[in-house]
Amino acid sequence: MKFGDPSNLHLLWVLVPLLFFLAWGNRKKHELIVRFCGKNLFSKLVTPNFREQQKTKAICISFTIFFLLLSLTRPQWGYQWEDVRQEGVDIIIALDVSRSMLAQDIKPNRLERAKRKISDLLEMLQGDRVGLVAFAGTSFVQCPLTLDYTAARIFLSAIDTDLIPVQGTALGDALRTSIKAFRTEEKKSKAIILITDGEDQTGQALEAAKEAEKAGVKVYTIGIGRDIGAPLPNPNKAGGFLKNEDGEVILTKLDERTLQQISLQTGGSYVRSVTGDIDLKTIYLDQINQNLEKKEFKSERRKIWQERFQWFIFPALLFLLYENRLSARKPKLDS
């Protein structure tokens, strides 16, 4: 036998204070009845085996709760084998970790908002393989394609702007690294989710997008930031901002046009990051999950255990019915 939800076993500790409460309650009940009707009337109104009857009721209540709590642990025994196939698509998430992602036009900053978006996306995934690519002036695979979303979260938590020493935003290099990360030449079931402010400084983004199109990869872009521009925090001066040689504060703006062109070239789509999950639902649920052909990742035989919680609910009901039939009143005698 095994338990489908063993975490509920700790609920059985409720029985300990319950037993003390029932014992105290029965004693108090006896004292109050005697005080109310007196000893003379007590023997005439109450059954002679009153105390034993109350003990029996307490035992029935205890067993009722015991079996109900035990059923919450989902006892299981007996199993059957079932063939389980896992299908999905390959998704590479390319995340911009350049210094411009520290801009605070999106609270708390662009990078933290992006990481939260990825974390929310991992909650949505339905059997798809996912990988992470971090990029700035260059790029590398932070997490290879995996079905282990917990491992992906660990890699995600380690991402920050100090991860890549080469500063800048090389969208073309990020796309090429992401294409190579698929490790297969199949021209289907592949998607890249590019999360960035779009400030491409190499001019190779559209050329790389054409390479993605040839490889059968659709690129979906999420723009992080605002097009009005935001100053860059100075990492070497608390509360200060980066300035150019002329002493002017450097502003970083969201370049939506480039991101739209990348998505359009590959047959993907572009959305701007917003509070909540509307942007993720648009890209993953409405686009990737609906339009991309799924492929089989693995097939295995799995033990499916039989739920037996109903076997514990049945005796609980019997104890409850028996307890309900017990009465402390003395039965009336026919005159």
Q: Please write the string of helix (H) and strand (E) elements.
A: EHHEEHEEHHEHEEEHEHEH
Number of E-type strands: 11
Low-confidence stretches: none
Portion in strands: 15-25%
Strand order of the largest sheet: 5-4-3-6-7-10
Blueprint (SSEs and pairs):
Blueprint: E1 2-3, H1 15-45, H2 50-72, E2 75-88, E3 90-96, H3 110-124, E4 129-135, E5 139-146, H4 149-157, H5 171-180, E6 190-196, H6 205-214, E7 218-223, E8 230-231, E9 251-252, H7 256-266, E10 270-272, H8 278-291, E11 295-307, H9 310-325
Parallel strand pairs: 3-4, 3-6, 6-7, 7-10
Antiparallel strand pairs: 1-2, 2-11, 4-5, 8-9
Please name the defining characteristics of this protein:
Rossmann fold, 335 residues, 21% strand, alpha/beta, single chain, three-stranded antiparallel beta sheet, six-stranded mixed beta sheet
Describe this structure in words.
The chain has helices at about 15-45, 50-70, 110-125, 150-155, 170-180, 205-215, 255-265, 280-290, 310-325, and strands at about 1-5, 75-90, 90-95, 130-135, 140-145, 190-195, 220-225, 230, 250, 270, 295-305. The chain is α/β, with parallel strands linked by helices and about 325 residues long. The model has no long low-confidence stretch (mean pLDDT about 85). It folds into two domains: about 1-75 and about 310-325, no CATH class; about 85-300, von Willebrand factor, type A domain (Rossmann fold).
